[in-house]
Write the structure tokens for this entry.
Amino acid sequence: MTQTILPTMTGVVLMVPEARAIVPSAHITVLAPFGGDRGPTPGELADVEAFFADQTAFGYQLTQVCTFPDGHRYLSPDPASAFSRLTHGLHQLFPEYPPYEGKFDLVVPHLTIPEDAVVGALPIQAHAREATVLHVEDGSFTEIASFPLGASAA
């Protein structure tokens, strides 16, 4: 079984460079779709930048390989609540863009991996430092903008 091609969509994600050995475009989606048919407006991008400037950078782990009911595999982040808070906050800011078009009662933070991906030792230690507005078309990823998260409390 081959994995389906991703739909054309723009979303707000946290890139996960620590997992690029498993999937080159490794990311955890915070809000998708985002922006209308023409993509996000300059005002929407400014609002996203301001939102993430008020968020604290955080560490997390990718702890286990899981499978959604439709068969798609993913790595589960811990704490998942950190990602859920970001999704909830962005959806509050942009109620016209419900996560995954409102198709799911529960949005599960995840890093999608191919079904044939070889996953080495877990957990993978990772750090969320920057949000990226990413456009996906025909399986190709294009970065529209990226915004740093606020400084972590030290």
In short: The helical segments are 42-53, 80-93.
